[in-house]
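Risk register update: the risk that structure generation would not scale has been downgraded. Supporting records follow, first protein first.
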Amino acid sequence: MPSPHPHSTAPRRRLAFRKSLVPIALGTLLIGTLGAGSAVASQDDDPGLVRVSGAENAVDRTEIARTGVSIDLVEDDGTLLVTAAPDDVDEIADLGYEVTEAGPSAEAMHPDDGYTSYPEVVEHVDGLVAEHPGLVHSQVYGQSYEGRDLLAVRISDDPTVDQDKPEVLFTHSQHAREPLTVEMAVRIMDMLTEGYGSDERITELVDTREIWVVPNSNPDGTEYDRSGDTWQNWRKTRGANEGSEALGTDMNRNWAHEWGCCGGSSGDPGSMTYRGQAPESATEVEALADFVRSREVGGEQQITTAIDFHTYGELVLWPFGYTYDEVADGMNQDEYDTHEALGELMADSNGYTPQQSSGLYITDGSINDWLWADQGIVNFTFEMYPGSPGDGGFYPPSDVIGEETARNEEPVLQLLDYADCPYRIIGEEETYCG
């Protein structure tokens, strides 16, 4: 598909803007304001948090994203919170946007032991399997670049057997610096196992669905992110890149649908949004894609619905991200309306803002787009708590874990409910589900 016209008008409805409760992010100190073409002072070449003003719509935001930065949040007034290296900042300023720099507070960025490490995730899964052998089964679907087992957990009334039931997939932590998503995985697994037999709704859903939870798809990245005295603000995997000293690939720009098509990712290995050398070139993406493909039985994909959890911004997003168009090649009106209606239903439950992914800015090579276009899976990206950097950004205090993961219990159950026929939500079950 061609790239969207750079001067086209992006859709403005359903755009999500979240207002910061403080003037700067994560306890940072305001350093200064820069005009177009000015340079941001920096101690080194490490990425830092900056604010960008003057982006009026999704086209402007896409222009900024194409410099290779990570846009972390769009605030109420249109100001962007961006993770950017000094060279990226210069490029953004050269485009005519105003940039304000801030430096992270070491105290605010200190790793929180209340978050679950990868060894603790594995231990928790092993405990669930031991305690609920008739409900929970885990399998290793691959190894990470550094050799860690990648786990998929199946929850069903007969979890060691492939059954003729609709399957649902929940994935977490493609981006390492988003530890709340791992806690969401733990919450889903605990909710379904603890509720089975005592909660009628959960019991029925577990009996009539096969539920897959990938609790951490990027364990190398998450373990590195928590490895120092401060969080490392690490987004990518930890794999080597040929010809570069920069490590890692942005998993959520490495998927095979419209990979690198539309300026929604970076070809620079040093960028936070580096798309990799080829589709599925990241070890972890290839393994997860192979796992999803393995759920095809007799030419039919058994996974019908999915959520990929991220932070932050409190959004429910759906395909496509590579184009501003709602109806495009591979997405007809009924299919779009189904995503929209399910997204809005779930957002009504958790208080998030629902919208098409590209309503923020163009991305390409995302799991969101691949799951639908390549596998026909109705799917969503959840950007979890917080809604503002003042509440912790990527690293909110662990005392919010209970409340903020519970907030998504109802949306998870709603998606499970519609897994038998997502088109039921628009009244088209006879047309699409027979």
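Supporting record for the second protein:
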Amino acid sequence: MSGLMRGFIKVVDSVNYRMGRMIMYFIFVLMGILLWSSISKTFFLPSIWTLEMAQFVMVAYYILGGPYSLQLGSNVRMDLLYGEWSLRKKAWFDLLTVMFLLFYLGVLLYGAVSSTAYSLGYWGTEPFSFFGGLLTGSEEIGRMEQSSTAWRPYMWPIKSIMILGLFLMLLQCISELLKDILRLKGEPV
């Protein structure tokens, strides 16, 4: 069982590490968009797409970088008591709190899947069966949701990124849970 846990941890940590290292460069994409926005407003006609595109890039940066941040332990913690605890006590506390986080991420993931299905023109109440139907050909994409701004981009790409980010965060939380279990068993992580 420990070998299976270690294999899962290794794969998930590797995927999230690589994704995080790639996504951290999105800050430069964001800076480029905002720089172009400033230049176009000053010297040319203002671009209508820059603000919304900057928001989309920031969402991707934040949500896809979250699992990497969690993996490195650089997430915000209340260190008043936690910093002084032993590794075993921290593992017990993390084991308890990660259960709440897994539930929360599950609810967010369900909402993201529902919202993405809606953005693809699905009006029903079973978003997972809609995506299964898309794969088998029994469902079709309807009228796609667009933003209400003047640029009017389709919303499904950013909502799909939200699904990916939440799924990777869920996997990283399970990886951290398994690491805590290994620590409590006294095995090296």
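The mean pLDDT is 91. On this basis the risk owner (M.S.) recommends closing the item.
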